[in-house]
Amino acid sequence: MPHAPPLGALLRQYAAGCVLACDPVDQGLLNRGYRLRTTRGRYFLKHHHDPETADPAAIARQHRATQRLADLGVPVAPPLADRAGQTVALVGGHAYALHPWIDGRHRHGGQLTRGQCERLGALLGVVHASLERVMPVEGRAPAESADPADTFGLIDNLLARVRRHRPADCFDALARHRLLERRELLERHAGRRPPHGASVGWVHGDFHPYNLLYRGDAPAAIVDWDRLGVQPRAEEAVRAAAIFFVRPTGALDLPKVRAYTRAYRRTAGATPCELAAAVHRVWWERLNDFWMLRWHYERGDTRADPQFPAVSALAVWWTREYDAVRDAFTD
């Protein structure tokens, strides 16, 4: 098994029995996960491998947050404590956490009914409202929006990498087309750079279909809290909708977005004005964001490639349908 975790030492630390089976879970982009079956039960073993999210203190903070959310009835899967009462296990200089295994499956927006879209929005609203209750507020100013001058430089760099890539393939052709298209859009809309974001609060940080498990028609657990942090909350609601409800063509399913957002606003106490500002900032963020191409060409990491066609088309469609998108989030 590649990147095999030190199962013997970990299971002894947790008194979790003897290993019967350990299979990698390959859906995460940041950290490594394993479906673990032992003589004591079934678990999810997480190896906090990504340097940006592997700080033991930050992991422990995530664990405290999820336990407090669980105490409020939010569907999460808090980690288990080891023999010493700790939830972060350090073995060989690496950080691990053991969670109960949650049976369930992932569902994207196309698989959700209107009622389930409302339930999804209400769930995220409850997460934000609950985090406000259980996590201390940190004084942090919202981040500045992307500077188009920096983005133009990045586009030129990526275009040069595309030209040098051999043998050229269909991904290169699409990347070149989207980069040239995005440069034209930014030149046209450079004057619409948004100001600083709205007030911030604690958010999940990565709320999307692969981080939500369903059992039947109901959410069973929100997982992967690696990006827990302080950000403008309404922007997380917009980003999540842009992932859950994007169609393969790059268009958003606006009726489902509307149902989701109305429920979110109700449970989070967010106003239409907050959502309108968040829509503008996330739209601008999408125009300036090329993380998938940077992974592909700078890091040689192609795991996000299948998402690129729809995501890159969304920025173009969103620009054309800007008013309709804003209305779906604010009606």
Task: Give an account of the 3D structure.
With 331 residues, this protein is of the alpha+beta class. The protein folds into two domains: 7-100, Phosphorylase Kinase, domain 1 (2-Layer Sandwich), CATH 3.30.200; 109-145 and 178-330, Aminoglycoside phosphotransferase (APH), C-terminal lobe (Aminoglycoside 3'-phosphotransferase, Chain: A, domain 2, Alpha-Beta Complex), CATH 3.90.1200.10. It is 47% helix and 15% strand. The protein is built from eleven helices and nine strands. The strands form three sheets. It has a five-stranded antiparallel β-sheet, covered by helices on one side. α5 runs parallel beside α10, α6 packs across α8 and α8 (272-288) runs antiparallel to α11.
Which descriptors would you attach to this protein?
Aminoglycoside 3'-phosphotransferase, Chain: A, domain 2; 9 strands; 2 domains; two-stranded antiparallel ribbon; Phosphorylase Kinase, domain 1; 331 residues; five-stranded antiparallel beta sheet; alpha+beta; 11 helices
For the biggest sheet, the summary is: 5 strands, antiparallel
Radius of gyration, in Å, reads 21 Å
CATH class membership of the largest domain: Alpha Beta
- CATH fold assignment of the largest domain: Aminoglycoside 3'-phosphotransferase, Chain: A, domain 2
From the spread of the alpha carbons, the general shape counts as globular
Which CATH architecture of the largest domain? Alpha-Beta Complex
Distance between the termini: 51 Å
Give the oligomer, counting copies of the same chain as homo and different chains as hetero. single chain
Average residue-wise pLDDT:
94
The number of helical runs is 11
